[in-house]
Amino acid sequence: MTAYVIRRLMYGVLILIGVNLVTFLLFFAVNTPDDMARLAIGGQRVSVDAIEKWKVERGYDKPLFVNAAASGTERLTDTIFYQRSVPLLKFDFGQSDDGRDIGWEIKNRMGPSLALAVPSFALGILASISFALLLIFFRTTRLDFWGVVLCVLMLSISGLFYIIAGQWLFAKVLRLVPYSGFVGGWDMVKFLALPIVVAIISRLGPEARFYRSLFLEEISKDYVRTARAKGLSERLVLFKHVLRNASLPILTGAVSALPLLFMGSLIAESFFGIPGLGSYTIDAINAQDFSIVRAMVFLGASLYIVGLIMADISYTLADPRVRFE
Q1: What is the three-class DSSP state of 137?
Q2: For helices 290-318 and 102-137, what crossing angle results, to 10°?
Q3: In 31, 90, 161, 286, which residue has its Cα 20 to 30 A from 310's Cα atom?
Q4: HSE of 75, CA atoms in CB hemisphere, 13 A
Q5: Residue 295 half-sphere exposure, CB side, CA atoms within 13 Å?
Q6: What local confidence, expressed as pLDDT, does residue 320 receive?
Q7: CA 149 from centroid of its chain's CA atoms
Q8: What is the pLDDT of residues 200-235, one digit of tens each?
Q9: Is 46 helix (H, G, I), strand (E, B) or coil?
Q10: Contact in structure between 18 and 302 (CB atoms under 8 Å)
Q11: Which residues are within 8 A (CB) of 242 and not within 5 positions of it... i.e. 6 or more apart?
């Protein structure tokens, strides 16, 4: 198992190098440093001197990959790629195009993102599994039929509808929670209650339908019929046998989604005014701050690789029969 994890980590490093290189190429294939300077300063009618000054202040006046005017190792080190993208491999995120420390921003914004994502993630999985088990317990009944219909309807509706409808109902009509905003301490509960509820409801349809299909497949297997033949109750069969044997696919989706806890929700944080990593990324995209966007893409790729490795490790904890050679 240790050798497998080490091998996966080595693969992950190679993937991160590739992600870093491809992201750099894509960004500078779309926008040259001159275009970035015009966007940052504002407008097309910008003097050449202002563009050159902006590029020199941020290190964009150098060649992309190879500096032919330099000698020795500086031919590679005195370039935009080495100074702006290579430090990401050491998780040195550097500064944004407006001069702010990206690492400091990530540390300060990770708290609000986690405060929103952790309850949404845990309560969402609990609600989806519970609802799916309820439908399975009453399978082939009207409750099961209308439950599936409800799941199909919910997964057919965009997440933006739940956000807008939730703000209209709970903030405008009932006045139970504020529209948007965020504060520290225990007062954050009133600002996070609505986003968490919306996140749970928006995930309930697709996840409950998936778990129901998963549980239906399990209850048709021989070990379930054997458990029933021994006289076990249907409730015990579902919770002790079916749920346990269906844990591997559940872990695959759950653990792989853990990186999203740190990255936050792009749409929810923007709509509800939560100063997390999601809104930070959206603001960077709107401001055309490519340094922040590259850093967030790299951070997301790193966390996703870690999540996949954790999913593999969790398999052996859930089912001792699983072994990786």
Answers
A1: helix
A2: 40
A3: 90
A4: 6
A5: 27
A6: 61
A7: 28
A8: 998 899 889 999 998 888 888 888 888 888 888 888
A9: coil
A10: no
A11: 136, 215, 218, 219, 224
Give the pair of three-digit tokens for residue 279: 């809104």
Find all residues with CB under 8 Å of 8, minimum gap 6, and list them.
308, 309, 312
CB atoms within 10 A of CB 55: 18
Cβ contact 35:51 at 8 Å? no
Q: Which residue has the tokens 């294939």?
A: 29
| Closest alpha carbon to 159 in 222, 187, 201 | 201
Residue 229, CA atoms < 13 Å, CB-side half-sphere:
6
Q: Which residues of the chain have pLDDT under 70?
A: 1, 43-44, 255-256, 258-264, 317-325
Q: Where in the chain is the domain with CATH 1.10.3720.10?
A: 102-318
Domain 102-318, what fold? MetI-like fold (1.10.3720)
Burial of 232 (0-12, 13-18, 19+ CB in 10 A): middle
Sign of CA dihedral 83, 88, 90, 92: positive
Contact 294, 24 (CB under 8 A): yes
Instruction: State the residue for tokens 């020795």.
Output: 72
* Beta-bridge partners for 101: 95
**In terms of Cα–Cα distance, which of 255, 301, 252, 293 is closest to 12?**
301
What are all long-range contacts of 214-218, with beta carbons under 8 Å and residues at least 24 apart? 214/132, 214/246, 214/249, 214/250, 215/132, 215/133, 215/136, 215/242, 215/243, 215/246, 216/136, 216/139, 218/242, 218/245, 218/246
